[in-house]
Amino acid sequence: MPRYYFDLIDGKTVPDVAGQLLRDTGVAIRVADKLARDIYKIRPELRDKDYAISVRDEAGDEVHRADVAASDAMHERD
């Protein structure tokens, strides 16, 4: 299984050094989107900031970015 890394972006990058072994990129995208929604719910002071979760694959390439502020539209789905 490939390893994906979930970095917190807030003007600078707070890297995920451990990552997670996941089945594929689709699963990694869903994990990042859920994490962004959770941050939106739990940390309301971050909603108007430029916070995001960047997903990197094993090669270090960004494969997805989930913006915390954009989670507002997805918030109602949970």
Q: What is the distance, rounded to the nearest whole angstrom, between the alpha carbons of the first and last residues?
A: 28 Å
Gyration radius, to the nearest Å?
12 Å
The number of E-state strands comes to: 5
Q: Choose one word for the global shape.
A: globular
Mean pLDDT: 90
- Give the count of structural domains: 1
Order of helices and strands: EEEHEEH
Weakly predicted, low-confidence segments: none
Output the structural class: alpha+beta
How much of the polypeptide forms β-strand, as a percent range?
A: 25-35%
Task: Describe the protein in words.
The chain has one domain (3-75). The protein has two helices and five strands, in the order βββαββα. With 78 residues, the chain is of the alpha+beta class. The longest helix is centred in the middle third of the chain and has 18 residues, at 25-42. It is globular.
